Amino acid sequence: MSRAETSSEVVAEVNALRQQIEDANHRYYVENQAAIPDVEYDRMMRRLQTLELEHPECASADSPTQRVGAKIAEGFPPVEHSVPMLSLDNAFDDDELRAFVKRAAERLERDAEALTFCCEPKLDGLAVSLIYRDGRLDQGATRGDGRVGEGITSNLRTLRSIPLRLRGSDHPSLLEVRGEVYMSRPGFERFNESARLEGGKVFANPRNAAAGSLRQLDPQIAAARPLEFCAYQVAQLEGAEWEETHSAMMARLREWGFRTSPELAVAQGAEGIVAFCRGLGERRERLDYDIDGAVLKIDSLRDQRELGFVSRAPRWAIAYKYPAQEQITQLKAVEFQVGRVGTLTPVAKLEPVQVAGVTVSNATLHNMDEVERLGVRIGDYVIVRRAGDVIPQVVQVVIDRRPERTEEILMPEHCPICGAEVERLEGEVAARCSGGLFCPAQRKEALKHFASRRAMDIDGLGEKLIDQLVERGMVETPADLFWLEAPTLAELPRMAEKSAANLIQALERARHTTLARFIYALGIREVGETTAATLARHFGTLKALMAADAEALVQAPDVGPVVAEHVETFFAQAHNRETIDALIDAGVKWQEVEIEARPRPLEGQTWVLTGSLEEMSRDQARDRLIGLGAKVSGSVSKKTRCVVAGPGAGSKLAKAEELGVEVIDEQAFLARLVEFESGAGGDA
């Protein structure tokens, strides 16, 4: 291939990349729409940078590589940044971090391991600038194109995490603070849920929600949304002395009333920042806000000034990017899965794609309401999101890439497993198979639920073994499990005599359970662990519960009409009563205690268990607390009465200490249980 031919191909690729990046910038910064995932944007930008470096004749002053963002949206006054709001270069692995440190050390003529860095999460939101004059908020603006942003002062004033007046004393005459506006994950979920109920706009992710909220012309809209601000830089300071380091400036900002990242840390050398990035990555899913990486800055402000900038980024900072949580791929087909209680869930069958380091070929579409909201069709290109252990989900259709021929997604009229009629009750989102226990799909799921740890706790009876037992016709109802024999089990694939014997022993242990666990194991719609425990305490015996009608059921604490109807309907079905009789015939039993004889001193209290316990399992501790009337929660809040903290307690313990919630160790917990269960204990 000749040089001329090569240049022609390069020019064409450069022009195409520039157009794609500019289109994405316009959609994201001007229209508040995520046209492509971050990883695709980063890939295109890096490719364009590489081509321009390798072919200087292709360089252009109007290339996206020479600026940060996009044009200003109409409706907001333009604000020129005195100090440009430049973006950061990216590192995608440990070696690129080490190379960044090496370059900085060489320019400073310093030992690389002697350099100190300030490290913090890279929040996934909208970057803004705040200017304070004589301690009062005077102006707020977006990043815009890095040199000119949008004046959104009125909207930013509505954020309670932004001080309208600096706290403390010795305020500078001029202060410019930069930071990120974002939505926490809980706030985002609440906002979207409210939007669904009111028929409003539902956002694909917290980042889009934050950006879209801040760029509303009516400040009342921003005020009504759960936006938060976290400061990450001082850009201008007059009338006060600069600290020597960035980390010290962050401490000064905290004194003046700004929120800074609680994850902020100082690290030494390349291995220090590598360790920080790894540690933050491990904690990433436990944070209550989205991050897409970490930001590493040389801590010394003198060194920052000496290193300076390249055209669009500082030489003294870099962003470490984690594997993308969103990717773009094609929806090839939709299958409907049948759940434990007959719920039909549309599942997207995707062209396999890497998301957050995992190959994803399936993603949930939740229900037909969500299919309609997304406007998704078979054949569409879609954005798939996966965060941590969350099931991958389709969050957005890429309308610009919709093929000419696509196919509408329709709910089947009959169950794809058993052929029974599919029902969708008025007012309910879910569609359900009407086949009940006769549907093989529900049979498997019902058995899996029955054997699960918080139900009958049958150790060794996993999903694959249940599949085999059902498919071979060895088990049709839960009662059949207790008639299995070790020699027969040992003949199954991947089973041996020892495994079979262990399962028979686990089944024998499961014969002795509690009424609450047994009720939960039956798989009644809307009856979770807490409701099952409530029903057991209120009625005392299974016979009394089975005889109760809806009017009697709603007398139980926290049991409403819907749950009461489901419980009454369940026990009215002949095949369900036959299943219960068969379980009792198989030797399943529990102690039925007169409810009036049981003390309930923790009624209305919320307790939290964290860390490991030595004298009992977490499940045993949970059961005893529920038996005393307590609600056992997985998170700590101001409403938490007490936290039981064992070895290895982490963020829940820290949250309890922050809120001033009582914390006790296992020995104190055991002592209180004795008091409560004997009736001697009073208020905790």
Automatic annotation (TrEMBL):
Sites where the protein binds Zn(2+): 415, 418, 439
Cofactor section: Mg(2+); Mn(2+)
CDD domains: BRCT_DNA_ligase_like, LIGANc
Keyword Metal-binding annotated: yes
MF terms in GO: DNA binding; DNA ligase (NAD+) activity; metal ion binding
Domain BRCT: 597-667
Active-site residues (renumbered): 122 (n6-amp-lysine intermediate)
Domain of life (superkingdom): Bacteria
EC number: 6.5.1.2
Alphabetical UniProt keywords: DNA damage, DNA repair, DNA replication, Ligase, Magnesium, Manganese, Metal-binding, NAD, Zinc
Similarity field: Belongs to the NAD-dependent DNA ligase family. LigA subfamily.
Function of the molecule: DNA ligase that catalyzes the formation of phosphodiester linkages between 5'-phosphoryl and 3'-hydroxyl groups in double-stranded DNA using NAD as a coenzyme and as the energy source for the reaction. It is essential for DNA replication and repair of damaged DNA.
Protein name: DNA ligase
Organism: Halotalea alkalilenta
Lineage: Bacteria, Pseudomonadati, Pseudomonadota, Gammaproteobacteria, Oceanospirillales
Gene: ligA
